[in-house]
Amino acid sequence: MTSVHEDRPVPPTRQDEVAAAGSELIGGPIGRWARTGGSRLTPVRVVALAMIGMFALGMVQKLPCYNWAWFQGTSSQYTHACYSDIPHLFAGRGFAENLTPYFDRLSGDMNFLEYPVLTGLFMEVASWLTPSDGDIKYREQIYWIVNCGMLMICAVAIAVCVARTHRRRPWDGLLVALAPAFALTATINWDLLAIALTAAGMLMWSRGRSLAFGILIGLATAAKLYPVLLLGPLFLLCWRAGKWREFGVATLGTAGSWLLVNLPVMLLAPEGWKKFYTFSQERQVDFGSFWLIITQRTGKSFQVESVNTYATLLMLLLCAAIGWLTLTAPRRPRFAQLAFLVVAAFILTNKVYSPQYVLWLIPLAALALPRWRHFLIWQACEVMYFLGIWMYLAFTTSGDKRQGLPTDGYHLAVALHLMGTLYVCAVIVRDILLPERDSVRRDGSDDPSGGVLDGAPDVFAIGRTTHPPQCAAQQLQGPRVQWGAGQGTHTATD
After folding, report:
1. What's the rounded mean pLDDT across residues 41-45?
2. Where is the region Disordered (predicted)?
3. Are 261 and 117 in contact (CB under 8 A)?
């Protein structure tokens, strides 16, 4: 389905009361007769510049650590909330000694690099750009700077891809660019590489390029495991719409690109290659998860095998619930909505919910729920957790001083962290069950970022008759939109 007004962007200040209020800082909401064409500052360029600015502010927030706290013991980097894995792993994973990831064995308990192959390559390229002489402190600083430059490119790519995924809603990219949790966590680890590839993949899917989508998701999975989860929602949506060919092409593209990257290392350095997967299985219950609250509150530790089993079962149950929701919803859900739900389910049931995992969800949230009020409530929870985990680690590493957040306070921060994510999930589920509440569909659209799914008729739905795609005449009815035959008539109002 295509809208007759698809070349006319949707001004967020006309649909979102928070965006309208925030626009007062730059002169107020756009007027009815305002001229929006002819400016060099297009929405996508504004989003890109905003992302660069916020990323730079995130780097400034890390200055206390860059100058001294990374090198003055563990507590200082926590009290200043500026911790990053990047400088520590420069020496800790052999990059300072020019060791080759996956092939050269490391000293200590960590025998090999515990990251997927494409992330390992990203880390290695950054080490090539880092001077090989000078003291270790100087080299760690430069390594962090080099990685920040590479990660900033990824961050801008993410924001631009989100801005371009829905043609009529480019300003939704500002949700990503201005997300405070994005700026605070962007340089903790190397997650942005996988997120950029995933965002580019979703952009390709929105343009109907199934093979390009699959290739990019396969590459993203070679950098981080979670992107492969997007094939689950896509399977359900293609099932409901009967788009089996497109799903098959996307799946083959994913498998092919993942194998292309992994197979050489898998064959030549099998022990180093499998370290990421064995590490994930053997990892104990860790920070940010509800499993940690249970173990610390009860004083009883779970066996790793038991937690793996329980987490897998919970994830499967949630995926089954998402599947049932997809096939029984009054209207086929949008791809971004289900993508957010399945990734959130994976994070919420995982043994660890690290502060940077919020980066996985931010682009999906901008596409699934482009409403500033809900987004900012969630971001406030994430910022509180970002501060909470570092204050808790400061408390546990400050010795007799006990400076920071005690265990009970940290549990409250974790609960807030989890409830914020559940809140977004709940609103998305509400929008799926009550599609007239979905802000993306208020103009009569179906799934603008859904590619071949956009406007496609249902061929299978549990408990419902299939219906034809919406016609252009229905879209011209203004705020009153008929969602489809056999499903009743709903009114979409602001």
Report:
1. 91
2. 471-494
3. yes
Tokens of residue 317, six digits? 């149950």
According to the model, what pLDDT value does residue 400 have? 75
CB 246 within 8 A of CB 231: no
- Please give the mean pLDDT across all residues of the chain: 89
Please state the φ and ψ torsions of residue 491, each to the nearest 5 degrees: -110, 120
CA distance 149 to 56: 10
**CB-based burial, 204-225: b 16+ in 10 Å, e otherwise:** bbbbebbbbbbbbbbbbbbbbe
Question: Who's near 45: CB < 8 A, 6+ residues apart?
Answer: none
Token digits for 313?
């079962």
Is 385:419 a contact under the CB 8 Å cutoff?
no
Place of tokens 């969630």: 378
The predicted model scores a pTM of 0.90
Q: Of 314, 316, 311, 369, give the one whose Cα is nearest residue 340.
A: 369
Q: Where are the domains of the chain?
A: 39-441
**CA distance linking residue 460 with residue 310, whole number of Å:** 32
